[in-house]
Amino acid sequence: MELATLAGTVSTVLFATANLPMVVKAVRSRDLASYSLPALWMGNIGNLFHTFYVVTLPFGPVWVLHGFYLVTMLAMLAMYLRYRVGSRHDRRQRHDRRGAPGPSRRELA
User: Where is this region: Disordered (predicted)?
Assistant: First the structure.
Protein backbone atom coordinates (compact mmCIF):
# COMPACT_ATOMS: atom_id res chain seq x y z
CA MET A 1 0.00 0.00 0.00
CA GLU A 2 1.33 3.43 -0.91
CA LEU A 3 2.08 5.90 1.85
CA ALA A 4 -0.55 8.35 0.56
CA THR A 5 -3.24 5.64 0.53
CA LEU A 6 -2.25 4.54 4.02
CA ALA A 7 -2.43 8.14 5.27
CA GLY A 8 -5.83 8.55 3.60
CA THR A 9 -7.11 5.36 5.19
CA VAL A 10 -5.91 6.37 8.66
CA SER A 11 -7.39 9.87 8.34
CA THR A 12 -10.70 8.45 7.09
CA VAL A 13 -10.95 6.15 10.10
CA LEU A 14 -10.03 8.98 12.49
CA PHE A 15 -12.50 11.48 11.00
CA ALA A 16 -15.34 8.95 10.94
CA THR A 17 -14.55 7.81 14.48
CA ALA A 18 -14.51 11.41 15.69
CA ASN A 19 -17.94 12.14 14.17
CA LEU A 20 -19.67 8.88 15.03
CA PRO A 21 -20.32 9.63 18.75
CA MET A 22 -22.21 12.82 17.84
CA VAL A 23 -24.41 10.92 15.40
CA VAL A 24 -25.03 8.06 17.86
CA LYS A 25 -25.93 10.54 20.61
CA ALA A 26 -28.37 12.35 18.31
CA VAL A 27 -30.00 9.05 17.30
CA ARG A 28 -30.34 7.84 20.89
CA SER A 29 -31.44 11.09 22.53
CA ARG A 30 -33.31 12.68 19.64
CA ASP A 31 -31.97 15.94 21.04
CA LEU A 32 -30.76 18.12 18.18
CA ALA A 33 -31.14 21.44 19.98
CA SER A 34 -27.46 22.23 19.46
CA TYR A 35 -27.73 21.92 15.68
CA SER A 36 -28.57 24.70 13.26
CA LEU A 37 -30.94 24.03 10.38
CA PRO A 38 -29.09 26.40 8.01
CA ALA A 39 -25.78 24.70 8.84
CA LEU A 40 -27.26 21.26 8.16
CA TRP A 41 -28.71 22.45 4.83
CA MET A 42 -25.42 24.07 3.81
CA GLY A 43 -23.46 20.96 4.78
CA ASN A 44 -25.72 18.74 2.69
CA ILE A 45 -25.62 21.07 -0.31
CA GLY A 46 -21.83 21.29 0.01
CA ASN A 47 -21.61 17.50 0.11
CA LEU A 48 -23.70 17.24 -3.07
CA PHE A 49 -21.36 19.59 -4.91
CA HIS A 50 -18.31 17.85 -3.45
CA THR A 51 -19.64 14.57 -4.87
CA PHE A 52 -18.97 15.87 -8.39
CA TYR A 53 -15.32 16.27 -7.42
CA VAL A 54 -14.96 12.97 -5.56
CA VAL A 55 -16.32 10.86 -8.41
CA THR A 56 -13.54 12.16 -10.67
CA LEU A 57 -10.92 10.68 -8.32
CA PRO A 58 -9.80 7.06 -8.35
CA PHE A 59 -11.57 4.89 -5.80
CA GLY A 60 -9.91 5.11 -2.42
CA PRO A 61 -10.26 6.34 1.13
CA VAL A 62 -11.67 9.72 0.08
CA TRP A 63 -14.68 7.92 -1.44
CA VAL A 64 -15.33 6.15 1.86
CA LEU A 65 -14.95 9.34 3.88
CA HIS A 66 -17.17 11.30 1.52
CA GLY A 67 -19.77 8.52 1.61
CA PHE A 68 -19.72 8.63 5.39
CA TYR A 69 -20.20 12.41 5.36
CA LEU A 70 -23.02 12.16 2.82
CA VAL A 71 -24.91 9.59 4.88
CA THR A 72 -24.37 11.20 8.28
CA MET A 73 -25.16 14.75 7.17
CA LEU A 74 -28.33 13.60 5.43
CA ALA A 75 -29.32 11.54 8.48
CA MET A 76 -28.68 14.52 10.80
CA LEU A 77 -30.81 16.77 8.59
CA ALA A 78 -33.61 14.20 8.50
CA MET A 79 -33.48 13.73 12.27
CA TYR A 80 -33.45 17.49 12.82
CA LEU A 81 -36.51 17.93 10.65
CA ARG A 82 -38.27 14.96 12.24
CA TYR A 83 -37.47 15.49 15.91
CA ARG A 84 -36.59 19.16 16.34
CA VAL A 85 -39.30 20.62 14.12
CA GLY A 86 -41.72 17.83 15.05
CA SER A 87 -41.29 18.51 18.76
CA ARG A 88 -42.10 22.20 18.24
CA HIS A 89 -45.25 21.24 16.36
CA ASP A 90 -46.28 18.74 19.06
CA ARG A 91 -45.64 21.31 21.82
CA ARG A 92 -47.75 23.88 19.98
CA GLN A 93 -50.63 21.40 19.61
CA ARG A 94 -50.53 20.48 23.32
CA HIS A 95 -50.72 24.17 24.28
CA ASP A 96 -53.56 24.81 21.84
CA ARG A 97 -55.62 21.86 23.12
CA ARG A 98 -55.46 23.15 26.69
CA GLY A 99 -56.49 26.61 25.62
CA ALA A 100 -53.16 28.01 26.71
CA PRO A 101 -51.20 30.32 24.46
CA GLY A 102 -48.82 28.76 21.98
CA PRO A 103 -45.04 28.78 22.45
CA SER A 104 -43.30 32.08 22.81
CA ARG A 105 -40.93 33.43 20.18
CA ARG A 106 -38.07 32.39 22.42
CA GLU A 107 -39.26 28.76 22.36
CA LEU A 108 -39.49 28.84 18.59
CA ALA A 109 -35.93 30.10 18.14
Answer: 87-109
